[in-house]
Amino acid sequence: MQKFILIILILAGVLSAKNPKNVILMISDGCGYNQKYAAHYYLHGKKWSPVYEQMDLKISLSNYAQDNPHYDGNKAKADASYVNFKPTDSAASATAYACGIKTWNGFLGYNTDSVAVKNVMEYAQVKGLATGVVTSVPFSHATPAAFGAHNISRDGYQEIGFEMVESSKLDVIIGCGHPYYNAQGEALNTPDFTKAGGEATWQKIVSGTAGNDKNNDGQVDYWTFIESPAQFAAINLNNAPDRLIGIARVSSTLQEQRAGISQKVGDVPKNDNVPQLNTMSMAALNTLGKNKNGFVLMIEGGAIDWASHANESARVIEEEIEFLDAVNSVVNWVEKNSSWDETLLIISADHETGYLTGVQDTFSGWTEVQSNGAGQMPGMQWNSKSHTNTLVPFFAKGTGSTELGKYADEKDPRWGAYLDNAEVGQYLINLYR
Ligand SMILES: [Zn+2]
175: Cβ–Cβ under 8 A, 6 or more apart, which residues? Predict the structure, then answer.
């Protein structure tokens, strides 16, 4: 009898889901289903790129903030204006992902009682994991900031940047917000240090004296600073520093805010003095991947949101292609340097922006963008300059996908099963509690 129980216990152990050693969370800021379809139609004439077809979990995600703490799929389907009412912002949604809680728009790592809440990176750091953030917008912007700072206002860029660099225990910070360059990547005569933690912080970053005691061994762990595309590309698993801060030579976004008006994808030459999001992501993985205990990495395609606010169809497609390149590179990195048995990849968004639909005679709510074949602009219609509360696509691959899927106990009449952004945060935090 005892033997029997022992066998049961062993079997249960083998069959129970293994917790991931590594977690990679990729957030496409402002990207709903139609932003994804538009990019994929343009690239392949198909709704989904192969990498998304190969995901283990393909569901949706709700993302409302505490300002309007509801999502009702039946109402969203019946009333075209339902999803316009008080949608989440990136700060509240990133806080849901990072801290597992719903909060007010504008809050970063604070709950609705204005009390600071620990984020998943802080839980993972205590367990000896490496942690990092990558973004195509300033590193102190809302989404990465929720994973490295606590602030009652997402607009406190200088404080947030300072906290991420000098107080957080992150191992990787990669993004934009370079004080000495403008949105075109041209040198500035008058630097702007706001997005990089202020002038004193910036001087310390550049001189290699920024940092703190990350692992409580009594020694200061200094940041290694990189800024050129060649420096980003050169970071590999053998030469990566312990702590890497990479600030691309541009103020706001890698590409989205460059001058000119894009009518077609790629018709305005790109900034050539910055790395691509996938190069930045590889530098981050090669740095974090050295930690034997595993890592947590958040990668944001930050400017899909900016292009969607501006209703710039061609730049939305450009940005989502840049994000897709990063997704493909991340998948390849995992298959080469790790495996799906020990790594969990999550790909989603924080909210939709622009209420993007197909072309309609009279606006009647959400419809799919229309494919005009590969290489052609799809039929796209913008119905808002702001965010919406609509569901966004959610994907996962690797160990933990099944466990994560169990949170998707709600059903939307249009998109089927969905989970909530705060539930993703709760799942992640529970891995390290
Ligand atoms: Zn936005």
Answer: 133, 134, 135, 136, 137, 138, 139, 140, 141, 144, 246, 247, 248, 280, 302
